[in-house]
Amino acid sequence: MEYYGFTLTPAREGQSHAQRYAELFSTVEIADRSHFDGWFFAEHHGEASFSLLPSPNLVIAALSQRTRRLQLGNLVNLIPFHHPYRLAAEIRMLDTFTGGRLEVGFGRGQVRTEQAAFGTDRSATVDMFDAGFDIIRRLLLGERIDYDTPWWKGSNAFVTPEPTQRPHPPFWLSAASDSSIEKAARLGMYCATALLSRKVSDTHMAEYRRHWDRCNPDRKGQGKFSITADVAIGRTFDEAYAQVAHHFDKRKEHFSRSITNRPGDNDETYRTHRPNYEAFAKSSIEDMLENHLLVAGTVDQCIEQVTAIRNRGIDVVNLSFSANDPDFARRSVELFGSEVIPAVEGLRAKAV
């Protein structure tokens, strides 16, 4: 199994936003020196208590010069909020800056307040994603193209610089429904999930693998499926959970307000999301542990929990370290990279 950090980087009380970014950079540098495989950065807009990352690509550009080993990726770029020609060129630049360590996630967005801020028609996001991704994919394959969509038009378009990874960096799709699971496999993209119950994510994983092998006969068994979990490592479980409880509560509040409590109009394409996010908003500590949405406790408890995730056949686990105390969060990253991963994978520990 591969281990990627994942961050929304919510604002923290008592820290300036500049301090929060500095903490993020130093945390990823710690991961680069240990057994983590990569780090993903989300894209969200507007609400600092939820996320301070309106541009994950800027973060990747900065960290490309401060890390040497980690894969770096956006999870995700929200296509309806970007011009696809500009985004394709940025991807090429980031692949160059990272020396071929870039991974690229794509999604259509689901938070209605963000869509309202961009003036995006909520009912059009599926079509916008499909049109935008097709433009990006063709440009990254080196084609010179004309394109004419209801949202973007262009002619004789091609991108520079030259590719570092060929034909392009690995693509991820943020998936939360049966149709998006199938789409990820059909487009040859890896599949990233979050906030789903263990039962739902295991079903999605099996379906993704079935669709992948059918759609990619020359790459059978090479798809990747990820889940996302929050992590806190302390002297006791109670100490660890106390560090992340506030962030879970804020996230539940955010999803309840911005996703599950939508107005009825223009929401048909999001109807399959509702049961899963409502379940998350109502989940208890026990539910989160059972569903592998939370890894918490002592080092030994976390080793046991992560081993259970690995035994499910998950390819990549994305790990969020959102503790109240920045020193506690940093220490959790250090312990996870130096003790938990080596114990689960049978590796020699690295000093961090």
Q: Which band does the percent of strand residues land in?
A: 15-25%
User: How many H/I helical runs?
Assistant: 12
CATH hierarchy class name: Alpha Beta
Radius of gyration: 19 Å
| Total domain units | 1
Unreliably modeled segments: none
What do the pLDDT scores average to? 93
Please name the CATH topology.
TIM Barrel
Based on helices, strands and strand pairing, what is the structural class?
alpha/beta
Largest sheet, in brief, is: 8 strands, parallel, barrel
Gross CATH architecture: Alpha-Beta Barrel
Helix content: 40-55%
How far the N terminus sits from the C terminus, by CA atoms, comes to 21 Å
CATH superfamily: Luciferase-like domain
Shape: globular
| SSE series | EHEHEHEHHEEEHEHEHHHEHEH
> In total, how many beta strands?
11
Strand line-up of the largest beta sheet: 1-2-3-4-7-8-9-11
